[in-house]
Amino acid sequence: MNIFDYTIPASDEEFTTLLEHKNVKIVRIVSSDKLEPKVYIQDEDEWVVVLEGKATILINGEPKILNKWDTLFIPSRTPHEIIDIINGTLWLALHIY
Q: Quick count: other Cβ atoms within 10 Å of Cβ 85?
């Protein structure tokens, strides 16, 4: 699979699991700029990297701007929400259980 071979969804996000092994899951996320407001609270730690585009995530009440190649570690049980995004933003997310 080519990570950069994708279609931008008309709305929300498309999640594709690239690898799941033992306590790790790697997911490709393609985001449209038409997202329904959603607060994520996950049981696992998550590390994300923006491969293309730009996003602003509200985490612990503080906005974090992520540009291309920026990364962010989100500890488990930490509420976070995408509050602004460029259409076609491409992420890799590493979930650690």
A: 21
pLDDT, one tens digit per residue, over 10-30 is 999 999 999 999 999 999 999
CA distance 78 to 64: 14
User: Residue 78 sits in a domain of what CATH number?
Assistant: 2.60.120.10
**Domain span including residue 48:** 13-96
Q: How confident is the model at residue 71 (pLDDT cuts 50, 70, 90)?
A: very high
Per DSSP, the chain holds a count of helices (H) and strands (E) of: 0, 8
| Sequence-distant (≥ 6) Cβ neighbours of residue 75 within 8 angstroms | 45
For the chain, the domain total comes to 1
